[in-house]
Amino acid sequence: MNFIELSKLFHKNGYVYIEKFFSTALMNEYQDEICNHFKEDNNYKHDESFIEKSKTDVIPWFPQIEGREKFNVIEKNKKLCDLTEEILGLGWKSLYCMVMYSNKSSNGQAWHQDCSPNDDGIFNLNRLVYSMDINNSTGGEVCVIPGSHKKGMIPRGTATDEIEGSVTISPLKGSLLLLHGHTWHKVLPILDNVRVSTNYRCVPKNTPNYVTDVAVYRNMLFRFSDGKILANRD
Ligand SMILES: O=C(O)CCC(=O)C(=O)O
Ligand SMILES: [Fe+2]
After folding, report:
1. Residue 99 Cα, ligand 2 centroid: separation in angstroms?
2. What angle do CA 29, 30, 36 make, to 5 degrees?
3. Is the pTM of the predicted complex or chain greater than 0.90?
4. What spacing in Å lies between the alpha carbon of 43 and ligand 2's midpoint?
5. What is the rounded end-to-end Cα distance, in angstroms, of the chain?
6. What domain count does the chain have?
7. 165 is in which domain, residue-wise?
8. Is there an atom of ligand 1 within 6 Å of 126 CB?
9. What is the pLDDT of residues 85-117, one digit of tens each?
10. Chain-centre distance of CA 104, in angstroms?
11. Number of C-alpha atoms within 13 angstroms, CB side, residue 48?
12. Dihedral sign computed on CA atoms, order 157, 159, 162, 163
């Protein structure tokens, strides 16, 4: 695995997808821990108006805040840290680990950017870890627009309008998707399975911790900290 080449691909396309980054044994441990947690609590944490307007049907969980130490293993993984440094440079920092859980037959996530693209240098990096296979029978594949991290704000439209040039990624168990926060991306509807992904978000040096507080959807700007629609775009 050549980290310099992977970093070049990331900066060119706004994402890079790598299979077999993590062992199956580790992925099984993650998947079990996550599924056990959601067996007890799979209520939506976002309010109804956000779910309706964003067409985002996902339940976030921040296990490290609850002291779940297993989730430190990937954050400290040397290979992941070295690749992150190759991409973001010295002085990058972890933000948090966010598990995303979706029930069967739920909507996935509409097209969005995780943060405002107004300043090229201010962005988050999603380090998405997949502890299960995701494909066209489970649903929940990830769609990205290559190079869109350099194209400014995602075009206005309804939450679900299609965008030309989309590439669909079907992540395998053990894979890693590094995704620039300005890249236009979405998650397809979930079919006959629950869907789990774990995101180790991080940022380059001198980036504010709240960088992902306002996400950009085709139909609105949404602020998570107080659950407010900051602007309508449709
Ligand atoms: O769960 C995924 O595959 C992608 C989720 C996403 O949009 C994100 O973490 O920013
Ligand atoms: Fe996202």
Report:
1. 12
2. 90
3. yes
4. 20
5. 43
6. 1
7. 3-232
8. yes
9. 999 999 999 999 999 999 888 889 999 999 999
10. 19
11. 0
12. positive
Task: Please state, in angstroms and rounded to a whole number, the distance separating the CA atoms of residues 41 and 63.
Answer: 13
Write the single-letter amino acid at 166: S
**C-alpha–C-alpha distance, residues 219 and 157, integer Å:** 6
Which amino acid would we find at residue 72? N
Whether 60 has a pLDDT exceeding 70, the answer reads yes
What is the distance between the alpha carbons of residues 59 and 42, in angstroms, rounded to a whole number? 7
The CATH number given to whatever domain includes residue 78 is 2.60.120.620
Quote the ligand 2 centre to 112 CA distance (angstroms): 6
The set of residues, in sequence order, having a beta carbon less than 8 Å from that of 182 and lying 6+ positions away, is: 14, 113, 114, 115, 117, 120, 123, 148, 149, 150
C-alpha of 188 from chain center: 13
**Contact, 59 vs 101, CB < 8 A?**
yes
CA distance 63 to 56: 21
